[in-house]
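Thread amino acids onto this structure.
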């Protein structure tokens, strides 16, 4: 029998299983005991930094804010900031409408090809993952938006308008966040990587984590780090957890009207290891569904990115090989990423 058992021949999305009121989850969603979330364990409490980027406009506060960002990137790698409230609200509402569509309509967009510019699915790699994620997602390339938006879902009728507005706002915010992160590394020449960032890639991943009858047996998304430079995350409730330096899982508090900013593998490589990409996962809830919208930003598909030469010297030798977004996709298409991180294949030291 195929390793995916009853999920192999007739894929049923997590949302449909939840709507059917199943009392137990299919075997292909059940993690080995060592990988399951410990829902009975008392969560480790920590205070994550909430940084208001508007303080950067006050020159007397700018250096203090840059230092706060430097500390956030070194310690946890998570900072928060909001976009226009109505834009975020509209995007989340239309996401809800999309996932409430009949299953056969969503399945028209289903693909296990990770190279597809628009695809619907459940797991990181439907074809390779031994255990599926308890989530549904729709992912689409989003920058430049004029190249891709015609491929996005046309139903709901306002999906392209509302999600497109959010995607463009996230792209603008990304420019600002990247500028201050580079400045915090001492790479503050105004033209540094300006064209590469402007011409980079954006993938918007809209996630639905349905209520799960056995939340202690599965995860909404398995532990991983994002491939790109930064990820902007909008969420409707708590559920995101990050791994700290002591390998403990730390819940990220839900802050209404805020975005979580996570550093990805490209930023760890670019900083030559000064900043670390964030290993994270999503737990699921027995009673409530959760939505999130991730705007994943990276350099262009074939742009090779390695450690900044300004951050390499005798005391800080080069720690990583170069890589591109396309090389990450090739790795993803051939591997179950729960078995090993792409970043580990790049390490020299």
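Threaded sequence (349 positions):
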């Amino acid at each position: 029998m195929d390793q995916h058992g009853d999920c192999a021949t007739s894929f049923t999305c997590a949302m449909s299983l939840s709507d059917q009121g199943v009392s137990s989850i299919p075997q292909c969603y059940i993690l080995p005991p060592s990988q399951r979330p410990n829902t009975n364990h008392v969560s480790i409490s920590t205070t994550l930094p909430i940084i208001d980027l508007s303080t950067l406009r006050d020159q007397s506060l700018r250096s203090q804010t840059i230092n706060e960002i430097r500390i956030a990137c070194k310690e946890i790698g998570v900072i928060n900031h909001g976009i226009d409230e109505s834009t975020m609200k509209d995007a989340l509402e239309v996401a809800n409408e999309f996932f409430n569509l009949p299953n056969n309509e969503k399945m028209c967009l289903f693909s296990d090809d990770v190279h597809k510019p628009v695809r619907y699915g459940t797991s990181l790699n439907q074809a390779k993952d031994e255990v599926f994620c308890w989530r549904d997602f729709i992912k689409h390339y989003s920058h430049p938006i004029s190249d891709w938006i015609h491929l996005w879902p046309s139903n709901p009728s306002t999906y392209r308008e509302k999600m497109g507005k959010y995607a463009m706002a996230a792209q603008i915010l990304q420019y600002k966040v990247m500028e201050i992160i580079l400045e915090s590394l001492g790479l503050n020449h105004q033209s540094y990587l300006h064209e590469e960032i402007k011409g980079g890639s954006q993938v918007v991943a809209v996630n639905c984590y349905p209520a799960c009858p056995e939340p202690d047996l599965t995860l909404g998304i398995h532990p991983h780090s994002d491939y790109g430079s930064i990820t902007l995350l909008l969420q409707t409730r708590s559920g995101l957890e990050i791994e700290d330096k002591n390998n403990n899982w730390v819940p990220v508090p839900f802050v209404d009207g805020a975005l979580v900013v996570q550093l990805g593998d490209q930023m760890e490589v670019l900083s030559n290891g000064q900043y670390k990409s964030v290993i994270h996962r999503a737990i699921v809830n027995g009673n409530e569904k959760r939505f999130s919208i991730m705007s994943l930003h990276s350099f262009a598909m074939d742009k090779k990115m390695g450690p900044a030469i300004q951050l390499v010297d005798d005391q800080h030798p080069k720690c990583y090989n170069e890589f591109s977004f396309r090389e990450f996709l090739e790795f993803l298409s051939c591997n179950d990423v729960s078995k090993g991180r792409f970043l580990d294949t790049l390490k020299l030291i």
